[in-house]
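Support case: adenosine-5'-triphosphate complex. Customer-provided input:
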Amino acid sequence: MSIQQRLVRLNPRQQEAVRYIDGPCLVLAGAGSGKTSVITTKIAYLVQECGMSARRIAAVTFTNKAAREMKERVGQMLKGKQGHGLTVSTFHTLGLNIIRGELKALGYKPGFSLFDPEDAKALLRDLMNKDAQVDADQINRVQGQISSWKNDLVLPGQALSHAANDDEQYAARVYEAYVRHLKAYNAVDFDDLILLPVVLLRDDPEALARWRRKIHYMLVDEYQDTNVSQYRLVQMLMGERATFTVVGDDDQSIYAWRGARPENLVTLGEDFPRLRVIKLEQNYRSTGTILRAANTLISNNPHVYDKTLWSEMGQGEAIRVVVNRHEEAEAERVASEILTRRIKERAEWRDFAVLYRGNFQARLLELKLQHYQIPYKLSGGTSFFSRGEIKDAMAYLRLLINPADDNAFLRIVNIPRREIGPTTLEKLANYATEREIALFAACRELGLAEQLPTRAVERLSRFIHFIEGVRDRMDRGDALAAIREMMREMDYEAWLYQNASAPTIAERRMANVWTLIDQLEKSMNREPEDTASTDTETDSVESAISRLVLRDILEQQAEEDDSDRVQLLTMHASKGLEFPHVYLMGLEEELLPHRNAIEVGTVEEERRLAYVGITRARRTLTLTLARQRKAYGELMDCTPSRFLDELPDADLEWEGRADKEDPEKKQARGKDAIAGLRSLLG
Ligand code: ATP
Ligand code: MG
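Agent response - structure generated as follows:
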């Protein structure tokens, strides 16, 4: 299909949004109105009609899943070379690419590591424990604070001078040390992926010019969820030219808790007075009933922009609300319904999605799905290779085959605890950077002894000798036996017990480590598939480990493949996606809206979250809840979510509702909501 043919399939407003390329453009519209479609078509339009090289175009969105979907949609339009060099990624991947291209300007060396939140927490723990014993809560709080600072573009110096009280002072000091140590480790954390590029582009005119030359046109999906630093990144990259298209929906802003600023939609108009705002009103996704439910629900929130959405998809089925005895019955119900519905509706597994508020809700559901042998894909859960203990064990294996693997070194130099402190590591890292050698090699150098206390040097060399000893045994005899012995010798198990909240958890983690080593053994004795020989060969431990590392990566990619499976995901992760049949679980007070949100008064964000969930559905929507649920180890009675009261009663079909709720209670709750709204609107 040519781009012209594609264009005429869009409605006039969408076409306008695609064709307008001379200045900044904002498409503001409700769910399912074809915002993402505007972005994908516009990319093809820029390349095929305007002759822009795909290399010069960057489209960004929020989740990996959404980026993948977008890539797929664009891939169908741009064939072969046309799409070469096109960037369709998350904000963070774009940031990562900028960092990769600007290592020198940023003062990093190649092979820098990306600290995941767990790695970052471990570093913070070390830093904070230096002064006094701190608990997990304190560490989490400081980690959260540092993250908000980074998202708001507040650097350590500013944090320190603006600190309003002792707690903030303290956090700011930890922030400063944290940044310094990350740098010494040649590492960046997740928030740095945006922060570092923004700071670089702000302070380095040459780098700015380089990137402005590189990116001519930017498209941003889910713009309502950008935070301050992401907004600045777009602004810096585009500059005066302001050749960008952003699309968003203020009603779908659900990341305020992570620093998102929906008011960026308004700011955009102020920063770019030439901004052309285009509104879309036709929904192409959902049935009339589903759309009406979504519109009615969200009309309970105050609005900056008024939007009306209509659909030509027909009224469709009523929305079912299924009340279950308890959470297990709820999970059972969802699983068994999917099983029968698939046949009744002649649907595929992938046509079903089950959405919930928190990942913990998926556990029971997984068991039920497994029971019925329903293939499913859990997004955001912890896969084998992303478990902490597996990452530790993999790091040992990687270091054994490549002592220059600095990431592996840093991960395990202190696991189990070897009393090698952050200051020692910082000095070691500086020493290694100056000489351009690996950390492992640096430990052996005599020069290091001049910069570190004797005890620190001893501890480091004990570690080095330990690893070299294992390596030696591997070379001389049975490599696997040597690896197993290593795990026992260093008493990793005891360390797990010290760090787990319950002994059973530590036990399971240790079992995972042995499973990994068994896998390694299998991998060494595998049938060689890719050689002509049919004999079973014993492979070298090196290549077996490399294969495991590769499998780790592949597994992450397989996670991302879209084979025919029921999708299980949080409402947060479901943004931008659509499914013919959607189940929304746990419509209960304290779960949706979440209890924390009720406490701190952010029910409106929860309402938007429910709006996002509901608008994922194309044909059928089923809402489920439980009358009782285990929370904090106790069986608690649950109250149906207030959001159910806010849906149009005539469109709902209840099942299993016992007595109707006490009308007085219902009214009282309604009043609360109205009062809250009034105060918000001032
Ligand atoms: P969300 O707010 O949930 O991200 P969106 O506004 O990005 O939604 P899209 O995902 O682009 O909406 O579109 C929703 C559905 O409507 C998709 O299946 C898309 O293919 C279809 N669609 C979009 N525009 C049109 C159109 N003009 N004609 C027919 N179908 C369309
Ligand atoms: Mg979209």
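The pocket of adenosine-5'-triphosphate (ligand 1) is lined by residues 9-11, 14, 29, 31-37, 249, 252, 284-285, 576, 578, 615 (CB under 6 Å).

Case will auto-close in a few days if no follow-up is received.
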